[in-house]
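Researcher: Quick one. three chains, 1155 residues in total.
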Amino acid sequence: MQLNTITDLNMGDQGTFWLPDGASTIAPEVDSLFMFVTWVSTILFVGVVLAMLYFAIRYRRKSPGDRPQPIKESKILEISWIVVPTILVLLVFNWGFKSFVKMGVAPPNAYEIRAEAWKWNWRFTYPNGTTSQDLYVPVNQPVKMKMSSQDVIHSFFVPAFRVKKDVVPNRYSQVWFEATETGNFDVFCTEYCGTAHSDMMATVKVVSQSEFNEWLESGGGATDDMPLPELGELLYEQQGCQTCHSMDGSPKVGPTWKDLYGKPNHPMADGSTVTADEDYLKEAIVEPGAKIVEGYQNVMPASYSSLSERELAALIEFMKANSQYAEDGSGS
Amino acid sequence: MATDTTTETPAAPAQTEVDHHHEEHLSHLQHHFVSSEQQFDSAKLGMWLFLITEVLLFSGMFVAYAVFRQWHPETFSVASQTLDWHLGGLNTVVLLASSFTIALAIHYIQKGETMRSFWLQITTISLAGVFLVIKYFEYTAKFEHGVFPGAMFDPHGTAHGVDYGALASYAYAPQFFSIYFVMTGIHGFHVVVGMILIGWIASRTYRGHFNSEYYTHIELSGLYWHLVDLVWIFLFPLLYLV
Amino acid sequence: MDSATKGAEVGHEEHHDEAHDQNYLQYEPGIWNWLTTKDHKKIGIMYAVSLAVVFLVAGVLALMVRTELVSQGETIMDADTYNQVFTMHGILMVFLFLVPSIPAILGNFVLPLQIGAKDVAFPRLNLASWYVYMIGAIMTCAALYFGGVDTGWTFYTPYSSTTGGGVLWMTSAIFVSGFASIFTGLNFIVTIHKMRAPGMTWNRLPLFIWGLYATSIVQVLATPVIGITMLLLILERTLGIGIFDPALGGDPVLFQHFFWFYSHPAVYIMILPAFGIMSELIATFSRQRIFGYRAIALSSVAIAMLGFLVWGHHMFVSGQSAISSIIFSLITYLIGIPSGIKVFNWVATMYRGSIWLQTPMLYALSFLFLFTIGGFTGIMVGVLAVDVHLHDTYYVVGHFHYVMMGGSVMALLGGMHYWWPKITGRMYNETLGKIAVFLIFVGFNATFFTQLVLGAKGMPRRYYDYVERFEALHQISTYGSYILGAGLFLVLFYGLYSLFYGEKASANPWAAATLEWTNVAALPDPHNFVRTPLVTRGPYDFHLADEVFGGDGMGDGATKTLDVPEPAPAAPETAEESSKA
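Model:
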């Protein structure tokens, strides 16, 4: 709760007073436009406030009987403060409009990645079928995101790239960017989408072209020979399970996975209890609405029914590895 | 003029003698109006403003109609053919006639022929009733074949050469009927309100509350009724004839 | 002038007596008479009480939001509660407070007085407006009872078609309270057109009236659209008619178009009357004719009209076509210009005036400061390319709080202080008033300037939790909001105190020149004017307003208790003074 020191306000290496570090080709344009408007505004603002304060002091009431002479209105003055701001805003409009058009048109050589959004996660799919929960992109390469939503409106926002686009159900939306620096950057959802809206985050990992190719060829890190519990842990992050299900026992949007596997007398909303065996867990993933755990809402998306048998088994093995009930000799 | 005038007698706050101009205090004149003319003008302007809000209310729905029709022209054309334009046309004639009778009612009250105005108001209400009865038959004919607004939309069967079942193959047919039912429903609600309004006016006319000098309520109800009519004039071709 | 004086003398005597016999507060007392009153002044007060309660509740919700955000993770509530709290803060503030605020309280009270009318054109409709508003407020409570609302005040589909038990009640509440807004607007337009006193030409209308007039146009034209939008949303949830919900074949972006077609003009419903109050305050406390009267009056109407053509600037990243975005952006700038004209004209009005820094004037100066920031940040979010970065971040939150709170609420507070003596017949405590302005001003900037910075750095709005680098700024914002809250509670405190123990006010404590001060007793007559006034000069022609200078009320309004000075005891003083000289 303590207030951090004032130096932290500048965020160290995290950019200027106003803006975070830009890491895309469009960022410098947006930034200079932002700073231009800020400076022009500041100058005009200081002018207005100084004039106001000066008048308030200089012409302060001297006696209750003051009867100042009315001043004549000046046509020139009035016209000038219509014309000058008009010119300024048209200048700014023209500038902003050009950059906006540039943002809207992806270069023809752009690399295409699909993004799927749902409450409350992102899944990125690359041309070779690899999927990941964090977004991997090569540096200095235009990337076009083709985005869709499974439920409500979300919005894809990378502050460092200065790009944002709503992801609307029942239609594809597009956004493109070209990263200019390697590193990790935040992806936020900026269209309010419910309980875990603020947890709907991902990371953009900008890597060199060769690293990217390597990562992509390995299928996002090969999973075929991976032991099931490890694959489960990977899927837990990739599929976004961790947004709603904790591994430390604390309740989030959904029940925790800690000590869930094999848990006897797991209470349901309808008053019954079940044992959280493999069948139950599989049903809970594939058909989340079938049984609702007491104290929770039926909000889990049905999209996990597309997981393969191996992936389901991996998730359940992962839960098993994190459960105190696992030794009780239930199932395999 | 001296500036330090705190002790002087106050100058005159300007006032008028308007208040003494009430020659005779008319019974219908509310206290805050200066004259019946001012009262009448105010009421009329108020009514016009209210009608503007009504137009905007309906225009919201017209926009929804236009947008969906733009996106799915074929669906809208097929769906619209299932509506019976004969009944719709008949209703148009009925409403136009009712607009005419209410206009005549205003005409006669201006001439001081109170009872004639009264009977014309009753005619208007009756015509509105006819409109609603026809609308009722139209609605039930649709409901019988599962043509409901929204989620319950489940078209089936044929009747009078109209193949309702075929609608099921058009993805956006529910939208057409949602819009149809919402628009005609809200319009029908306005018709009911109009009937109650004119009924109230008619009873006051019968009791002799109005005369050739004072007939604000009848005139304003007439304006309202013309609007209800006007909305239908737009609804009919857009929904039945496209 | 001499010939008129004698007549006025008689008029004044009557006036004087009547002020003792009956003022509007004493006239027809009792709870039932209040609930059935058709007096615009009493309806204004009833609105003031209701809105004060709403503002208090919504303000406390805001403090809860800020407290939750003071540090990362869960602080005082869980995510679902937080979502409901910020949603209710937004809905209450926008639909139940800001939209009615100035027109329903001060507009109702002041408008007929300022144009020299006995009442608004349709007093019964005016009372109905309050009742409809109250029904809306009760339905809002029902929404909370039936499961709450967590959609944000914007009700974007499809989220709002699927979530929360209270959405149906809430949308119905907004549908209903829209009628209250329409009734008020309709009433004002007719009143301004038809009920002006003789001599009150359009060029002599006080600028507050012009502001209300422009507001009323927007209310009448825009509100039906939110009505039909809410109705369609209600039908969508009950019947599944599928206009907006993509799961049923509808289009969520269409909802946004509908919603903003009302909600952007609604912003002008909130700010235009505030402009009007600003003109009154600055002219009166500078005792100077307003600079560019016509420009200010007409720019209000221009803003009202242009306001209907810019709704799409809320949707630059929503997927509407680029062409629409570009057109909306261009028109948005055009609105910036009349707003700028007003600010320049207000500052110019102070030039060579006689500036009296009482509390209402301090609010006016704060308004100039804050609204200018609000305006410039508005230009910023109108810049297409920059808005892509700033959209739905705290920059937008900061921007609209600068305009809505720094603009509308500051103007409302200034106006409440200004007309307080006329409404209650008592003065508030000037020292406490000045302390409160200071607290509010400082607290406000600490709260919301940090939010501008947060937003530019990429902090999205409506976030329950945030990444670590935003924490320091969030803390400053939260502590600022406590200062702001303290200032507002101070206002509440000395306002209530003054109702019972405040010094009696005179008829014209500010030496203002509009009719409600010059031709009305300290506490107005039930029918406002004993005689309908005759208007012979502009509202801010202080150099022609002898009655202003002749009256008492030159001091703090504290020394004298009656509205009419008694010449007899005053005479020796003059003699003494002249003998000294």
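Residues 1-20, 551-581 of chain C have pLDDT under 50 and may be disordered.
Researcher: Thanks, that's what I needed.
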